[in-house]
Amino acid sequence: MEKHKLKNFVDSGLSTYQIADRVDKGQTTVRYWLKKYGLQTIYPQYRISGSAEEFWNWVDISEPDNCWQWKEARKGEYGKYRLDGRRMGAHRVAWELTNGPVPAGMEVCHRCDNPCCVNPAHLFVGTHQDNMMDAYIKGRIAPPPAFIKLGVENHSAKLTETDVKNIRARYSSGETQTSIAQDFPVSNQQISEIVRRKCWSHI
Ligand SMILES: [Zn+2]
Questions:
Q1: How far is the CA of 91 from the centre of ligand 1 (A)?
Q2: 14 CA to middle of ligand 1, Å?
Q3: What is the arithmetic mean of pLDDT over 91-101?
Q4: pTM beyond 0.70, yes or no
Q5: C-alpha of residue 12 to centroid of ligand 1, in Å
Q6: Domain boundaries, the chain
């Protein structure tokens, strides 16, 4: 595609998805051109907005069991939608349009571990705790401190005994927990638990 043609699309405010649709190419191809020509589509969060009926126009509705991709989401990211002025995650909108308002304090979670999926059959509501637990079970996040029992005896442990000794030694010599956390596959919170011997206390 020629640069001036692509630039016209960008200048007229079309999204990557809309451009891909106009020229009958994939979004990946359009993103490649955009990068090549140093152009950028206007992509403020929640740019996509509308009514409940219009919402489904942005969904790649497929077989009932399959993931239904949010057309404007990048892989691994949540879709966003402004529903009648309310800024929401696209998956949350899909759940609400199917089931009614999300109860206070609850989150809409994915069974399929695909953030840009908005198939209502793949969504469930849970507490933040459930969501974190779910992410942990699927291996997306490190185990929350409460699940760390006795270090290596726990199969999900990401640290070795040597790591733990290292962490404590570095902390004792004055290094900050944040700085230490950068070198290990655990959070600041977990470093804090380790140096305070709230976990790995047997070492
Ligand atoms: Zn799905």
A1: 10
A2: 27
A3: 93
A4: no
A5: 33
A6: 3-36, 49-137, 145-195
